[in-house]
Design goal:
The protein has 326 residues and is α/β, with parallel strands linked by helices. The protein is built from 10 helices and 12 strands. It has a single domain, classed as TIM Barrel. It starts with 11 loop residues before the first strand and ends with a helix. Its EC number is 4.1.99.22.
Length: 326
């Protein structure tokens, strides 16, 4: 069992497969000429599996694969297949571009839920946000997943003045589709130009939805990061991830392993533990894991302690989102 000093048991591991991505979303990877981590410094396939097995031996029940874009990694299929043999719930977050070609591998590995990052339902705005002209490809792949009866969750980062006007459009999408829209408060990371006036809060999102729909709260599962809601008559549902205004730290059970093998005990932690170097030196990584999680702060990495409107994003000591792995 992996626990911190506040009694929180950690049984959910997020593994970033790469910091590479075929999108250039400004809130995640702001620079076009991004300096990707050399392949030799990334965890190799066998190293990912070895580390995953250590975590599973200590009670991890769920593994999520992230990136960057995890499916652009050349050996992604081999990694997914190997992890699919472990006694865990395996899920993935992707931008959706490579879903069609990877679908047989995903299904064989037992992946039943896929999160798709999609911040707009407008093709032109999609191009503006991602700097890539593949909107229709992503939408087609989402329809493919629905046809295959795979649970689809749409991650939509809400940014004031950019896509907050599309909240109703995303809710309309759930009318006849069994999808869950996950509205996410815009969070500060290195280089993503976060400012409080771009942040669209939990209450603002709810107010926007309630203008046009009857909203009913839904009880969530233990350790949920999202607050869940339903609309009568809709096949799908929606949720809000309110990290900035109503965080869920008290029940957090998550650990993050970056693509270069560093363990982060919180998305906003200012420190990390190098598991990959220890593994390559044939050292026992378990004591490092236990010590890292034990030192976890009570909330938000101990850094986001002020109200978001007075938060100085430049003072936060962290990686960019793409190098953390979401």
């Amino acid at each position: 069992m992996i626990a911190d000093s506040f009694g929180r048991v950690h049984d959910y591991l997020r593994i970033s497969l790469t910091d590479n991505c075929n999108f250039r979303c400004f809130y995640c990877m702001p620079e076009e000429e991004y300096d990707f981590t050399p392949a030799s410094r990334l965890m190799q396939t066998d190293e990912i599996i070895k580390l995953a097995k250590v975590f599973v031996s200590q009670g991890v029940k769920k593994i999520r694969l992230t990136g960057g874009e995890p499916l652009v990694r050349k050996d992604a299929a081999a990694i997914i297949s190997a992890l699919g043999k472990l006694p865990v719930e395996l899920v993935i977050t992707t931008n959706g571009t490579r879903v069609a070609e990877m679908l047989p591998v995903l299904k064989e590995a037992g992946i039943k839920t896929i999160n798709i990052s999609l911040d707009t339902l407008q093709a032109e705005k999609f191009m503006l946000i991602t700097r890539r002209d593949v909107f229709h490809q992503v939408r087609s792949n989402i329809e493919l997943l629905l046809h295959e009866k795979i649970t689809v969750k749409i991650n939509m980062v809400v940014m004031k003045g950019l896509n907050d006007g599309e909240i109703k459009d995303f809710i309309d999408w759930t009318k006849h589709n069994p999808i869950q829209i996950r509205f996410i408060e815009f969070m500060p990371f290195s280089g993503n130009k976060w400012t409080s006036n771009k942040m669209f809060s939990l209450q603002e999102i709810l107010t926007a939805v309630e203008k046009d729909f009857t909203v009913l709260p839904v009880e969530g599962a233990p350790h949920d990061t999202a607050k869940h809601f339903m609309i009568p008559g809709h096949e799908g549902s929606f949720a809000i991830i309110s990290t900035m205004t109503a965080p869920f730290c008290s029940t957090c059970n998550r650990m993050r392993l970056t693509a270069d093998g560093k363990l982060k005990n919180c998305l906003f932690s200012n420190g990390e533990t190098d598991l990959l170097t220890a593994l390559r030196n044939d050292e026992d990584v378990l004591p490092l894991i236990m010590a890292s999680i034990w030192e976890k702060k009570k909330a938000l990495g101990g850094q986001l302690i002020s109200h978001f409107e007075s938060l100085d994003a430049a003072a936060i000591n962290n990686r960019s989102m793409i190098t953390i792995g979401g």
